[in-house]
Write a structure and sequence with these properties.
The chain has about 180 residues and is of the alpha+beta class. The protein has one domain: OB fold (Dihydrolipoamide Acetyltransferase, E2P) (Beta Barrel). Helices cover about 20% and strands about 25% of the residues. The longest helix has 14 residues. It starts with about 20 loop residues before the first helix and ends in a 6-residue tail after the last helix.
C-alpha cells in the first residue's frame, strides 16, 4: 500500500518523475540495442572502447523467453556496449566461457569493466562436449585496459604495466595470433 501525498489545501500532490541520468538506456529502448558481436569462427576478434555496461535478465537462446533460476530469481547477464571500428556492438556475457574470460581480464587489470576502458575478446576454440550431444561451449580470451585515471584494486598501476609490457594487453591480443596470456 502506498501513501498518496497531499498539499496543504487537500489536493493530491503530483509525484515527481524519475530523474533521467542514463540517456543510453532510453536510446536502447527507443532505437534498439546495437547488434550483437558475432564469434562464428575460431580466431574471431572483437575489440573496442566500452561505452556502457549493464546487467539484464538473460533470455533462452532458442525460445527467447526470460530465464529463471529454480528458486524463482532471474538469471542475470552483463551486456557490454562497445564502440568498435565497425560501429557499436553489444557483447553478451551470458555464457560461462565469455564470463570466465572477462573475469580473468578484469583480475589482470585490477578493476572491473568501466566505460571508457578498452576491451578485446577473441574466440579461441571449443571446450569439451556437453553430455547429451549439445554444442560444444566456446572458449574465449580477453584483455582489458581500464580508463586512465581510475584507481586499480591491486598490483602495479596501468602505466607501470604498460611500460613493462611495451605494449598494452589489448593491442597484443589484436595484433598477435597467440594472445599474450
Amino acid at each position: 500500500m502506498s501513501v498518496q501525498p497531499y498539499n496543504d489545501d487537500g489536493a493530491i500532490q503530483p509525484v515527481p518523475a524519475a530523474v533521467i541520468t542514463d540517456y543510453a538506456e532510453i536510446d536502447a529502448v527507443l532505437m534498439g540495442a546495437p547488434p550483437a558481436a558475432q564469434f562464428r569462427d575460431i580466431g574471431a576478434l572483437v575489440t573496442g572502447k566500452i561505452q556502457r555496461v549493464i546487467l539484464r535478465q538473460a533470455t533462452d537462446f532458442g525460445t527467447k523467453e526470460l530465464k529463471w533460476w529454480p528458486d524463482g530469481a532471474p538469471v542475470l547477464e552483463p551486456v557490454i556496449t562497445l564502440d568498435t571500428a565497425e560501429g557499436p556492438l553489444s557483447l553478451y556475457a551470458g555464457s560461462r566461457g565469455m564470463r570466465d574470460a572477462l573475469k580473468e581480464a578484469c583480475r589482470a587489470a585490477g578493476i572491473g569493466l568501466r566505460p571508457g576502458g578498452r576491451l578485446a575478446v577473441r574466440y579461441t576454440g571449443d571446450g569439451e562436449p556437453y553430455k547429451g550431444g549439445a554444442n560444444r561451449p566456446k572458449v574465449y580470451e580477453a584483455a582489458y585496459e581500464p580508463p586512465a585515471g581510475l584507481p586499480v584494486n591491486s598490483g602495479p598501476t596501468i602505466a607501470q604495466r604498460l611500460e613493462a609490457d611495451k605494449a598494452s594487453r589489448v593491442t597484443q591480443l589484436v595484433q598477435q595470433q597467440e594472445p599474450p596470456f
